[in-house]
Amino acid sequence: MSEDKLESPESRRGFLTKLTGGLFGAGLLGGSWTFIRSLVPNVLYEPPQRFKIGDPEAYTAGVHFLDKHRLFLFREENSFHAISAVCSHLGCTVKFSPFKQLREMTVRKLSYRSRGEFRCACHGSHFRDEGTNYAGPAPRPLKWHELTRSPEDGQLVVDLAREVDRDFRLVV
Ligand code: FES
Questions:
Q1: Residue 63 C-alpha to ligand 1 middle, in angstroms?
Q2: Measured from the CA of 90, which atom of ligand 1 is nearest?
């Protein structure tokens, strides 16, 4: 009698219905969990926007490329300024090409002695050494970033979140 009951079509149908429902529920739960988990990344890594780059005395006169920060630091006697190496077209890193000798130049009504130019190898943009784009697809000049001195130890501090005008100079 009990064997008949176990093998009856109703009990088999009931078992299969529960099994199907269970599998469907598990699939739905798994899919939902994966979706919810994808909205919460494991690590939110964002490099610091403000950082120290060392003592002013550590930099000789001229142009220094800080590859870790994709930044050019210019020193002229006791004055410093920092220009981003991130191309304003699609973000490649520009390179600095020095001229053999300084050239007198007027760019955007500012006269100065140019020591070279920036070039982007990705799509051929060119920038003056004060960052103004003049050839290629780059739509904007390179950014100038704020430079200060740390009150604690006198090191140079760059703030990538703060842009400054191209006549900005930090005199130490
Ligand atoms: S990324 Fe520099 S020219 Fe395109």
A1: 21
A2: 1
